[in-house]
Amino acid sequence: MYKYFGTIVNSVAIIIASLIGTVSTKFHITKKDDREPLSSAILVTLGLCTILASVSGLVGLEDGVQSLKCVISLTLGYVIGYLLDIDGKIFRVSSYFKNKFSKSNSKESDYSLYGFINATLIFCIGSFVILGPLQASQNTGDNLVIEHHILLLMKSLFDFTTSLFMSMNYGISILFSSIPVLLIQGAITILATSISPFIVSHNAMPVINCVGSVVLLTIAFNFIFKTKIKTADFIPCILLSVIICAF
Q1: What DSSP letter does each residue of 143-185 carry, written as one string?
Q2: Is 9 in contact with 152 (CB distance < 8 Å)?
Q3: Where do runs of H (alpha helix) occur along the chain?
Q4: Distance between CA 126 and CA 184 in Å, rounded?
């Protein structure tokens, strides 16, 4: 049961942040002009924390063979992601709903619906959504092991910040994006638990952690340096790192 701890915290963080954001807007606690610089400052800080969390995964490889598997996973995985244009497809889906439910063209209820859809896309698609449950699935004992939930706890901080500021614009609808987060990450945790024996028997975790750490660095660079690395195109790298450890 403890393997779902990180996912539950993630969902609760979105709910709390959405309530705070909605209430602060309703009672004019925060000024509109302060929101963007404050959000940017927080995301830069979280980006630095992501780099710190990535370090352990980058230095955890045990031999040259695992290093080679990481290089192959990252190179081939990114090529697959680039050819499939995963990041572009996600962007186009988001843009479609943005145009369809824009505030100038739609009723308030439609605008809130767009907020929910956009938040769900942000919270449920990305490297954290796969890496977090993979890590959490290792917490199979009768005790809570926090180190198995570090990635999901970090994702909770990111999602808390994002939902806080999104709820200031879209209202309480952002709160309901916590439901897809709970269901999708819970399902991935179940799947990860089912392949856990394979991961253990093939000593795949160092490779997965290293590949995942590189992917997390791309996310951190986007937050800190405002680069436009297409992080979603790296998703196949994570999946490939699991498969390649069978050989």
Answers
A1: S--GGGGHHHHHHHHHHHHHHHHHHHHHGGGGGGGHHHHHHHH
A2: yes
A3: 5-26, 32-58, 64-84, 86-100, 108-124, 127-136, 150-170, 178-194, 196-201, 205-225, 235-244
A4: 12
Q: Which of these, 195, 119, 175, 182, lies nearest to 152 by C-alpha position?
A: 182
Q: What are phi and psi of 203, to 5 degrees?
A: 50, 50
* Whole-angstrom distance, CA of residue 77 vs CA of residue 130: 15
**CA distance linking residue 114 with residue 100, whole number of Å:** 8
pLDDT at 153: 94
Question: Could you report the per-residue pLDDT of 20-38, keeping only the tens digit for each?
Answer: 999 988 776 666 666 677 7
pLDDT band per the 50, 70, 90 thresholds, residue 45: confident
Q: Report the pLDDT value the prediction gives residue 177, as an integer from 0 to 100.
A: 94
- d(Cα 161, Cα 155) in Å, to the nearest integer? 10
Residue 3, CA distances (Å) to 180, 186, 211 in order:
18, 9, 22
Contact, 244 vs 72, CB < 8 A?
A: yes
Measured CA to CA, the distance from residue 121 to residue 113 in angstroms comes to 12
pLDDT tens-digit profile of 223-245? 888 888 998 899 999 999 999 99
Radius of gyration of the chain measured on its C-alpha atoms: 19
| pTM, entire model | 0.83
Residue 202 backbone class (left: φ over 0; alpha: ψ -120 to 50; beta: rest): alpha
Number of C-beta neighbours around residue 153 at 10 A: 17
